[in-house]
Amino acid sequence: MLIAVFAQYNEQYGFGELPSDNSQTYGESEVLYGEQDKLTWTPASTNLQNAWGRFYATIAYANIVLDHVNTPAMTTANRNGYIGQAKFLRALMYFNLVRMFGGVPLVLNEITSETQAYTYNRETATAVYTQIEKDLTEAAAVLPVSYTGTDIGRATSIAANALLGKVYMFQNKFTEAENILATVSATAGTLLPYDQVFGLGKDNNRDIIFSVQYLGGGFGEGNTFARSFVPQPSGTTITAVTGNSNNSGTPDLFGSFEAGDNRLNTAIGVYRSGTLVYYYAKKFIYQSVAANSEGDNDWPVLRYADVVLLYAEALNENGKTAQALTQLNLIRTRSNLDAKSGLSQADARTTIRHERRIELCFEGERWFDLIRWGNFVQVMQAHKTNFVPANGLIGNVTPNLALYPIPTREIQLNSRLTQNPGY
User: Fold this and answer.
1) Residue 336 within any structural domain of the chain
2) What's the CATH code of the domain at 336?
3) Range of the domain at 187
4) Can you tell me whether residue 279 is helix, strand or coil?
5) What is the pTM of this model?
6) pLDDT digits over 98-125, tens only?
């Protein structure tokens, strides 16, 4: 189960960050991720096929656990732990799938034959979200609040509730989101200084609610962030490996940090090569990484800061703007920025959205945020007009890009699957 998760979160930024105004490719990374950067993906795109396969592989493993968990003799606590973790991971995979592709096949039991695998229809996005909510609610009911020792890093009840709050936000269920996020915000963690959240040896800190636990040392469980994010022309001057310049920030992102924001130096590194300037994802880089796939730092899936900003957003959408600003200012004052006060609901909305862009940059959130806010065409059209990427032009920005296409191979294998509009 975890191998598929490790592989996918090595590249999830390619679907949640690169298509947005936050990130871009360069010549050396165009072959791998140019389609995602330029919004020119097709149903035949290899990266989409790989993502689909990894999500469903993880779901398959979770289903096997859930279908057989009652067979072996074990304590109730252990059984509940397996059930809760499997349901959490299944929900997380379906959350990625529904955000990327819309309604998808809901596979909730072990598949025992190839014929069976091709009998599933696409469900509606609403049905997928309903199942996600069910899995997370049931996971939260049986998972512990925290772990000790070698179990640290497993999904907790707090992680399940935090993800549930995020799932509500993606459906504009602001009342439900406010209620669950209020509980999570009060119990989940602590806002740390930004430079204490990221970096080697800082994993599983108080800001981290759930992360993908990468492990260097030759076990085949390390990340590829250094290879992916370091500017290629820098050679080994930034890390011990040469990078491919994937997930490099845009000048617009760099310029969107307010003066005095102490997150900038942790989040973004600047490297110049001739006329090119690379604003690379410094927050995921450390000098001593041993090899291309041996990164030892984790990938944050859910952070306390993310929860605080989602809670602020839910409060504001529910007409509680003053309370929303209180939450927002937890982030701003921690970042050495002036607190906001007296804003209208509309101005608070704009400010909260901006803060999410800055706080979570490079973490695979921006594109999905733009989609759920319904302003991605406007934002990306402005980005396309005002900024010429370092390697080629952005394609047509059309509403159908809110969903990725169902991979061609999946439709060829299962004729019951229909394609998303516009592809």
Assistant:
1) yes
2) 1.25.40.390
3) 157-162+172-211+298-361
4) strand
5) 0.97
6) 999 999 999 999 999 999 999 999 999 9
